[in-house]
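Page 42, continued from yesterday. The earlier attempt failed because a stray header line got pasted into the input along with the sequence. Redoing it now with the clean sequence only.
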Amino acid sequence: MICYECGHAIRRDFAKFCDHCGSSLEIKPKKASLKKAMVKIEDEIDQATNLFLLWNSAIAATFVFYIIHAVTDGYIYLFLLVLFMLAVSWMLLLTKLHDLSIRHHQPAKEFILTNFGIPIIGTFYSYIKLTQK
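This time it went through. C-alpha cells are written below.
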C-alpha cells in the first residue's frame, strides 16, 4: 500500500493511517482542480480572421475553376472539390462568428437572419461587426 499524500510505502495491508506523514489512507485526496484556460478575445478574432481569409480564397478558387470548367468542358471534379471546400470553410467561419457573437451578447436570431437571409453580404457584415475592437 502507498500513501496518497507522501508516497511512502506502507507494509501493513489494513493500516488506516500513514506511518510517515499520518494522513488517512481511506480517503483519496481530491485532485487539484485545473483552472480552465481562458481564451482571449484577440485569439478568437485571429482565428476568425484566418477562417475569413480561407473562405475568401475558396470563393476566388471556385470562380477560377468554374471558368476553367466552362471554357474547357472538363475539370468538373476539381470544380466540385473546390465548391465543397467553399461550403466547409463557410460553415467553419460561421461557427467561429457565432462564438464571437455569443461573447458580444448578440441574439442568436439576429445572427442567423443576417447570415442566412443574405448569405455572402451577411457573412461579410457579421465578420466586420464582430471583429472590431
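Notes: Helices lie at 41-72, 76-103, 108-117, 119-130.
Reminder to self: strip header lines before submitting.
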